[in-house]
Amino acid sequence: MRDIRVAKPYARALYDAALEQNALVSIIADIDKLRELIEQSEEFTQLIHSPVLSPQFKSETFQQIFADALQPLMVNFFKLLALKQRERSLIAIMDVFSEIVDEAAGRLVAKVTTAVPITSAQEERFTAQLSAYSGKQVRLETITDAQIQGGFIVQLDDTVFDASVASQLQRLKQQLAKG
Fold first, then answer.
1. Distances from the Cα of 115 to the Cαs of 3, 124, 148, 152, in angstroms?
2. pLDDT digits over 84-105, tens only?
3. What is the pTM of this model?
4. Torsion-angle region of residue 59: left (phi > 0), alpha (psi -120 to 50) or beta?
5. Is 109 helix (H, G, I), strand (E, B) or coil?
6. Is the domain of 31 the same as that of 98?
7. Please, which pLDDT band fits residue 1 given cuts at 50, 70 and 90?
8. Last residue of a domain, one of 102, 132, 159
């Protein structure tokens, strides 16, 4: 919860600065690169979360790592986060930033959970059906969770469509217990 309170003003400031500098598309691409880096590099994740390293050291390190790889606005944003000791909230900030971008574009995010990864054709069908249902453009976030055993669970805004095998089995079990 604390990360969200910290993330909102930083994400909004980054979004506003990106708009002001006509760099929104580049910043979105940089955020995607950072997400990939966080997923792939345990060392980078440790650098972000280390309480031992000084803010100044982290700021200088971010400058060295990203000077040629990211937009100057993003590099400066990283340095600011380090100096303000908010770099540990980076993932939450990126999530809120993506929400702001989606909201400004009139998009909704649908989280689709399946037992096995879905194909691109299935992804397109989900997107088309959810867009028709909501009346807005939908961006999918897919999650694979074998515990649902089959089927899918879709969360679109405040609505949840649960067509998972695990839920169906649970409902059947409850019905059988009632008699």
1. 29, 18, 6, 7
2. 999 989 999 999 999 899 989 8
3. 0.73
4. alpha
5. strand
6. yes
7. very low
8. 102
